[in-house]
Write a structure and sequence with these properties.
alpha/beta; TIM Barrel; eight-stranded parallel sheet; 8 strands; 38% helix; 16% strand; globular
């Protein structure tokens, strides 16, 4: 039995379609191109069969937060072509080798020492690891991420590392009740990206927005939204 067993996979296709419809509606409202926002299905704590069901429904990118769980799941799903794995959890120094070897993307990079370890430990037969710098736009001490004024220096560090390529910025703001309040931190990340982007370093990925605020994120320029509950349903009771 898998360490995390999904609570029924029958509704995943329907929920996936509902989330895709929400994304399309927000994109239309923002008057953006139809394919300008990608969906990252956050599969942490859900079993491999749930991922398989979402894959069968057309989803290809999946987000994981717990390294050991992800390793087991990746192995169980090794038969699926073109599946893409994103690490979205807190990076621990003793887990960087496993992250570097098994993931395609890292969304929560906020430490130069972690950046160096990930680059050094990226297998030479794999392309550079795609990374998003996590930014603490709301200033909460409990949140991970670098302060906005420190982002440029971390990007410069990453650009000197052959095993990494910086693809954009990521944030996880505090929950907010209304859309205007939700949009404010997302706007801050977009404006920061606009200031730091160059022709050679477009920082095209804005990884922001989840199940409860993806519309606000899309209205402020998100190019990738990270959605778990709305796709897979509640976390299994034994997820911890």
């Amino acid at each position: 039995m898998e360490p995390y067993e999904a609570i029924g996979n029958d509704g995943i296709q329907e929920r996936l379609l509902e989330v895709q419809a929400r994304i399309r509606a927000a994109v239309e409202r923002a008057q953006r191109p139809p394919d300008s926002v990608a969906l990252l299905a956050v599969s942490k704590t859900h079993g491999a069969e749930a991922v398989r069901a979402a894959y069968a429904a057309g989803q290809r990118a999946f987000g994981e937060s717990y390294v050991q769980e992800a390793i087991e799941k990746i192995a169980l799903l090794a038969d699926l072509p073109d599946i893409e794995w994103h690490f979205i959890g807190r990076i621990q120094a003793n887990k960087t080798r496993q992250i570097a070897a098994r993931f395609d993307w890292v969304h929560g990079l906020s430490d130069s020492a972690h950046a160096r370890r990930l680059s050094e430990q990226r297998p030479s037969n794999l392309p550079p690891l795609k990374v998003c710098i996590q930014v603490n736009v709301s200033g909460e001490t409990s949140k991970g991420g670098v302060e906005p004024e420190a982002v440029a220096a971390l990007i410069a560090t990453c650009e000197a590392l052959p095993g990494l390529v910086v693809r954009g910025l990521m944030t996880l703001p505090a929950p907010a009740e209304d859309e205007d309040a939700q949009r404010k931190p997302f706007r801050g990340l977009r404006l920061l990206r606009d200031r730091l982007a160059t022709a050679n370093r477009p920082l095209a990925c804005l990884s922001m927005g989840m199940s409860d605020d993806l519309e606000a994120a899309i209205l402020e320029g998100a190019t990738l939204v990270r959605v778990g509950t709305a796709v897979f349903g509640p976390r299994p009771y034994n997820a911890g």
